[in-house]
Amino acid sequence: MNTKLTLLLSAGLLMASAGYAQQSNPDTGKNKPTVVAKEDLRDDWAALSHYARENKQVGDPKPGENRVVFLGSSIFERWKTTVPEFFKDRPYLDRGVSGQISGQLLIRFRQDVIDLKPKAVIILAGSNDIASNYGHLTNEYIMNNIRSMVELAKLHHIKVILCAYLPVFDYPWRKGIEPAGKIMALNKLIKAYAAENNLILLDYFTPLVDERNGQKPELTTDGVHPNAAGYRIMATVTEQAIAKALK
């Protein structure tokens, strides 16, 4: 093949390739850029995606590991950022998701508790229900979700530690609903249920409460969430409850 013919064939191939690479949209006649579809998470009401990747990385407990899962909302989620040393070098997995109500914790229970194969789970539920984050939810609604989580845990031989909720005098984002009495009423139900079912009760209310049945000002950032000092008090009673549950 002579040089001139070779050059002509090469030029033709290049033009054909360029034409193929820049095909027009048959509907509009214009080049159509590739569009990456955004993931639709409307079905993930309980935020299962929040810890999905981390759960895969964690893997199964090591032999002899007394793994404990902390299941709750912002109280637990903020704990690991406010006092991260509490979770360092301990077999504790924090699975708090800010803003969640008890029904969302129940939906997450299989993925964020059962599948992690812990020896024990600490369930802190109810405050966001009382704060009416998702409508007007009753203490009976909260207790039904707690009962379901306890039954699931027992079925999978996971020790249960139920929490008496932290005191709250008022919610900064939902002022005037007077939650203190509602939290005390919920705690009464939780304590009775724990006693009836031989469950460990972790009392976060008593060491943090002030004379108004809210949190002591020196132990909280906003009347709802503990500060570092508050979390250190919580750490003490938590370790005691875990030791009791695992003995």
TrEMBL record:
Residues 1-21 form the signal peptide. Keywords: Signal. It comes from the Bacteria. Residues 78-233 form the SGNH hydrolase-type esterase domain. The keyword Signal applies. InterPro entries: Ester_Hydrolysis_Enzymes, SGNH_hydro, SGNH_hydro_sf. SUPFAM superfamilies: SGNH hydrolase. Transmembrane segments: none annotated. It holds the Pfam family Lipase_GDSL_2. This is Lysophospholipase L1-like esterase. It comes from Mucilaginibacter lappiensis.
